[in-house]
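Any chance you'd type out a single protein's sequence alongside its tokenized fold?
>
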Amino acid sequence: SYEASYETYYMLGKLEEYTGSTQRAIKAYETALEISPQAHQCRLSLARALCDLGSIHRAETELARLRYEYRRSDVVWALSGRVFLAHSDTKRGLRALKKAIRINYRCSIAHTILGDYYSRHACKRSIKHYHLALDGDRPLYSLYDKLATLYQQLGRYDQAISQLSLMKYFATPEDQIKIQKKIRELNHKLDNDNKLKRDSSWWQRLVG
């Protein structure tokens, strides 16, 4: 039937996207939209997949249509912000991301994109957005790794270890081994850092 055909291709697209086959997912979404052009959720999935593939111009074509038809969708504005930033239109990109957050303060996609944007020059601001993204969607466990990296850059090794420990909870057994190795390295740095602080304190007391 008509509905069954659309659902079949749409669900196939979701499955392909979940397993990392982005190009096949795009093909399935496009076929679904040929059957049902007004299926905005499918068009949104297509736009997101195109962004992930780096097809920014094609993604913008889909998002322009969605912005006109679904102005109150936080995800539409978040993805639009991602596209604008990719085009180096920073002002428009940040404005779109802020609009997504005004619509839905817990919009994980918007906070993740902002976290990525600020990670290059404003670590503390980036950390704030990554935490907000996790509050909105706990399964985004890769953000724990990004937070750990930022905390490490700030020399806050104990908090970096905490983030990696949380990440372990969601990771595959293979990734857990890699995460545990990172934790051991950070524990070593933390021990060295604490030793330096103790030695410095002892020396100050001695010469004081």
Notes: Residues 82 and 93 are 6 Å apart (CA to CA).
